[in-house]
User: Which sequence fits this backbone?
């Protein structure tokens, strides 16, 4: 006859279940984006973090490169050079400002997403121990509107 441990035995307690530490999850996400999500065992979120940060970082970089090109072209046009024959200096300046604005927007989006993924890892670690019991839903008589 095998001996079975009762369900209230410490082996089966909620304390034995591994729960992530929110501070560690936030710190890991701050050091390496997506690491906090992996630490929390939310593996499906890490590629989403990498994709979002990769896309916004790439777009900020590309817009910065275009901004530098048109800034140089505008400076050359003002100095009397002719780097872009079909464009007037006003058009070059407008393009330069457009790329500068886009670069700034994507840079801010990158920083916002970076901060959000840290906060998400921190909050997810807090909520790992949150248990929803089925006994919380109302089962008694209730009022309803019938049409």
Assistant:
């Amino acid at each position: 006859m095998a001996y079975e441990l009762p369900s209230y035995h410490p082996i089966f307690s909620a304390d034995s279940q591994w729960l992530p530490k929110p501070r560690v999850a936030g710190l890991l996400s701050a050091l390496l984006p997506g690491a906090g999500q992996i630490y929390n065992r939310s593996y499906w979120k890490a590629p989403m973090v990498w994709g979002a940060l990769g896309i916004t970082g790439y777009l900020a970089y590309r817009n910065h490169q275009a901004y530098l090109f048109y800034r140089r072209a505008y400076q050359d046009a003002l100095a009397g050079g002719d780097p872009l024959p079909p464009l007037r200096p006003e058009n070059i300046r407008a393009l330069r400002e457009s790329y500068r604005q886009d670069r700034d927007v994507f840079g801010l989006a990158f920083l916002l997403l970076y901060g959000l993924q840290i906060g998400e890892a921190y909050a997810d670690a807090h909520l790992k121990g949150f248990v929803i019991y089925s006994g919380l839903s109302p089962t008694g008589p209730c009022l309803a509107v019938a049409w």
